[in-house]
Amino acid sequence: MAKPKEKEIFEQLMKRYLPGRGITEKVTIPDRVSLERYQTLEYYKDQVYRCGKCGQCRYTYQNADLACSCPSGELRGFESYYLGGKNLLLWGLTSGRLSWSEGLAEILYHCTLCGNCTQQCQLEGIHTYALEWLAAAREEAVEKGYGPMPEQKRYGQHVQEEHNPYMEKHADRLNWLGDRAGNLPEKAETVYFVGCTSSYRQKNIASATFDILTGLGKDFTVMRDEWCCGSPLIWTGQVDIARKCAEHNIEAIEKTGAELVITSCAGCYRILKEVYREKFGLDYGFEVVHSPVYVLDLVKRGELTLEKPFEKRVTYHDPCHIGRHMGVYEQPRELLRSIPGLELVEMPRNRQNAWCCGAGGGVKSSFKELASFAATERLREALETGAEVLSSACPFCYRNLSDAKEENKMNIQILDLMELVQMSMKT
Amino acid sequence: MTKLVEVDRIYEELAGIVGERFVSNRPEELFLYHWDFVTAEEPGRCDFVVMPEKTEEVKGIVELANREKIPVIPWVSGINIGGVCIPREGGIVVDLRRMNRVLEVNEDDMYAVVEGGITWGDLKGYLLKHHPDLRAGITWSPPGTGVIPSYICYGMLDLGMVGGTGAEFLNGLEVVLPTGKVVRVGSCMSTDYWYGRQPFPDLSGLFIGWEGTTGIVTKAGIKLWPNLPRRDYIVLAKTVDAGMRIFKRLARAGLGIVDMCFLNYVWLTATQGVRDGENIPSEPEKAGLPDFYGLVTITGATEKELDAKEETLMKICTEEGEMALSFGDAVSMFPENQIGEFLTYTSLPIQLYTVWDFARGGGGEWVGGYVSSKHLVDVYYKMREAAIKHGMRPQFYGRAMFGGHYWIGRMNISFSKNDPEEIEKARRCLMDIDEAARKVGSFIRYKAPPWAKKRNFEKADPNTIELLKEIRKLLDPNGIMNPGQGL
């Protein structure tokens, strides 16, 4: 190792890099790139071309044995389906070298917008803003008449009529509550924002969350007039419809007088917490928290005791919209660790490097093969850890992973964190 | 390839070979193969891109191309700083990245058999997971770039002092010739083992240095090495001359150095995103700043062995009036937000942003070549002078190869690839740098764009050039393999 004296000499030498004369006056690339978020493709055009198509975005860099990171690219193979390809296609578009076409739109929509690629690229402009221009490109596709994909357009229309993308009736939204629906107060301190997937598909998650809150005697309600949060619309470029959803939901929540909104769905969480305000410029006075974070807080404050053992090996899948998009990585894990008997094991690709389940960004409706491919890969990874249970904190992940599990007849139990909490609660 | 009916027919045939989803002639797909998106070289064009999964499919594609006399361009990542796989005359780009598997690792003889489209990320990831005691030589390139193109184009590995260029780490090849015939060279020619190129006539030379113009490599045997504990050092010297004196002594000191390379001040600062202008002197010695930043890596089985090597290394540096210190200590003195960038230097493959001046707009091209140690310093100063004349920042990189038997030097120029004027300026500058380096004597370009390759042969022995042409014609009678590239 370096001897102290040599270190001292080096330090002296480094001092010769006087301010304004060398490497102590470093203005790094990260320092230089400071852009607004939620802007148009045109706004980001001076960033996209900097991509060298080096392929860094395809691997979990120096983690998880450099595993693959991009479901879209891994399935389709061609350069265009990876971030590097998309960046340079957008350069072609913004520089007039390419024109909009159905093929280009198909490529840009064949992506869950999970953001794993952006975590791998350390070029600051791309690392921080690539998801912005990928979303902006979809908005432009809609403006130019090349987007969204037909299935996405269909559910967009349905959201306008029935306020959910599942082709269900709005009147059936609270069916999951059964008899419990009759006791919902109009006013409450807290709103449980159920989301469309938990309301119509993963009713198990809605029920578990509702029962936990009820069991704890919380002053909460579920809104009879909750609409789609807008997540499946925003990420497919259908911004105008999403805005209407946002305006409605804010008004509806404010009518309840709630100061806190709890979400079940990772997509709802990001939209309510950030997008309504940052993208749409809407103002509201309530706080938004994702259910595991809320429940963990109760555990920490001693309001909730988890004491029934759950003697199984569990692995946790990070939903993209709370993980990479919003930075919620540790609280769900902490909550899992607080369940007695539960053994938490990590998949090699976790946290920032987590492989996407394949559902988001409009993919589950329009690119079923991609959705199935990504979920199957994730289930395989979970099984390789020896886990008996794959847990997550998003009904859309739950749904897609469950579909792939059935399709492939895989032997692993899928449980939402709220289901695990409910099982472990003191009766 | 202008007649629509022909396009449709060829498309159908290609789809019959690789499956419809792995052939494309959509403009959006082809666009990404027309450019290398890094250099100042002109884009090309292709008519189809296909992604085969196995040798038989490559064979089928090449047979079709040979029959129809359509150009074929082997491709893995398209980044080689010389535009070597930019399709110059249309045709079929054969994107090999579905052929990215490690087929075998022979622990006894320390080699791996890999497919032609494997990337550094694939290879390193596989070894980390399945054979952590072994390692491969890796280039200073990003994980998404190709292993075999680097090996057969004389790429430099981080074991360059041990065995030279990537070409010298090849044990054997399976190649689809331009006629569609599949051949194997090396010990794999007559056995199931890929331990070396001996004792048959070494036909690997038919494919090494030809830059994908004599065949498509579908499998390769590559040497692996024990993954021993390592120590890295920064050697700091006032000038490149002084640094080179140290490096030459270190090469002969019996230290078992596995890698030894250096950056000049301008490249070091460029990778850190320092602003342009007067704060970055192109001639740092005049401003009292060191110009030589060496990275030396030693390995050893025991701490005692490493300590002994370190002692000698330090002694040589001190005797030369310069200094070395451990990599960790050196980088800890840089601002915290840049330490991570440096750490990638000892854990290849790199993040491209750590070696590229993206602040200027993502464009970069080098004039790189092999050179005698006698001339490396001169090459540096001549190149630097040429770059300064054009108002460009002279970023220089040098490396000792194969125990110090030969060296490499290259000067990189960064520019905005979205600015036609700057690209043109970079082109003129690169040509002058190239000319300046060649005047020194032993400098020969590698991975060079066509204009520089032409210069390579200007002073070459005409009989040898004739022989090379005859060999290429023999292997590729219809001239379909990557035309416009290579010789």
Determine the mean pLDDT of chain B: 92
Radius of gyration of chain B: 23 Å
In terms of per-residue confidence, which ranges of chain B show pLDDT below 50 for 5 or more consecutive residues?
none
- Structural classification of chain A: alpha/beta
Dominant shape of chain A? globular
Find the biggest chain interface.
A-B, 64 and 78 residues
Query: For the largest beta sheet of chain B, what order do the strands appear in spatially?
Result: 15-12-14-13-17-18-16-19
> What is the H/E string of chain A?
HHHHHHHHHEHHEHHEHEHEHEHHEHEH
Ends distance of chain A: 60 Å
With strands numbered from the N-terminus, the spatial order across the biggest sheet of chain A is 2-1-3-4
SSE topology sketch:
The complex is a heterodimer of chains A (427) and B (487).
Chain A: H1 4-14, H2 29-32, H3 45-48, H4 71-76, H5 83-94, H6 102-109, H7 116-120, H8 124-144, H9 150-162, E1 190-193, H10 196-200, H11 203-215, E2 220-221, H12 231-234, H13 239-256, E3 260-263, H14 266-278, E4 287-290, H15 291-300, E5 313-316, H16 330-337, E6 343-345, H17 363-366, H18 368-384, E7 389-392, H19 395-408, E8 413-416, H20 417-424
Parallel strand pairs in A: 1-2, 1-3, 3-4, 5-6, 5-7, 7-8
Helix pairs in contact in A: 11-20, 15-16, 18-19
Chain B: H1 4-18, E1 23-24, H2 27-34, E2 48-50, H3 55-68, E3 72-75, E4 92-95, E5 102-106, E6 111-115, H4 120-130, E7 134-135, H5 147-152, H6 160-163, E8 170-176, E9 182-186, E10 216-223, E11 225-226, E12 230-237, H7 240-251, E13 257-264, H8 265-271, E14 292-299, H9 303-319, E15 323-326, H10 327-331, H11 336-343, E16 362-371, H12 376-389, E17 395-401, E18 406-416, H13 420-438, E19 444-445, H14 450-458, H15 462-475
Parallel strand pairs in B: 2-4, 3-4
Antiparallel strand pairs in B: 1-2, 5-6, 6-10, 7-11, 8-9, 8-10, 12-14, 12-15, 13-14, 13-17, 16-18, 16-19, 17-18
Helix pairs in contact in B: 1-3, 12-13
